[in-house]
Amino acid sequence: MLITPQRTPDASVELGRLLRRAARSATRVYRSRVAELELTHRQAAAILALVEKPGATLSSLAETLGADQATASALVDRLLAGGLVSRETDPADRRRAMLHPTEKALHLAEGLAGARRASEDRIRAVLGAANSDKLAGLLSRLIDGLEAPDSSPITAAANGARRP
Fold it and tell me: Quick count: other Cβ atoms within 10 Å of Cβ 136?
């Protein structure tokens, strides 16, 4: 019998892959909770965005969702058909429509908050409270560091800057 020694993953190689896999797994847990409300994750995101900012325009909603205008428009059409969004003309600019969540959407938003809590509870159950808090701190630090401007040659080149 051939015994293969276990390899410890090289953290510098594995970290990005592990982060992506953890994000996919956590997203899958959240999406399954959202599906119980008979919503897609895009519909849920749009509802939450409109609850947070009622009266948003299609373009501002598209920007918030990171979607193009056509995708956001099709999504809004589905939400309108489902009675989750109402559209009214902007009195200041009659060419522009403002989007508002309906009572039905506000009720679903409460369910979405519960879905978020349930998925976070699942993560905390796996990691424990102390490790969950530690991970949240580390991820916040990572995000801040990666989103901050960096003047290193590698980062500058990746951002389109020329080397001196």
Answer: 13
pLDDT at site 151: 60
10: left (phi over 0), alpha (psi -120 to 50) or beta: beta
Topology of domain 23-127, CATH:
Arc Repressor Mutant, subunit A (1.10.10)
CB 51 within 8 A of CB 60: no
What's 114-161 look like in SS3? HHHHHHHHHHHHHHCHHHHHHHHHHHHHHHHHHHCCCCCHHHHHHCCC
pTM: 0.73
- d(Cα 5, Cα 10) in Å, to the nearest integer? 15
User: 35 is written with which tokens?
Assistant: 């599906």
Q: Which two tokens stand for residue 60?
A: 């501002």
Report whether pLDDT(95) > 70.
yes
- Based on its alpha-carbon atoms, the radius of gyration of the chain, rounded to whole angstroms, reads 21
Report pLDDT digits (tens) over 61-85.
999 999 999 999 999 999 999 999 9
Which tokens is 127 given?
Answer: 């990691």
Euclidean distance between CA atoms 73 and 86, whole angstroms? 13
Give the CA distances from residue 72 to residues 31, 84, 134, in Å, rounded to whole numbers and listed in that order. 19, 14, 36
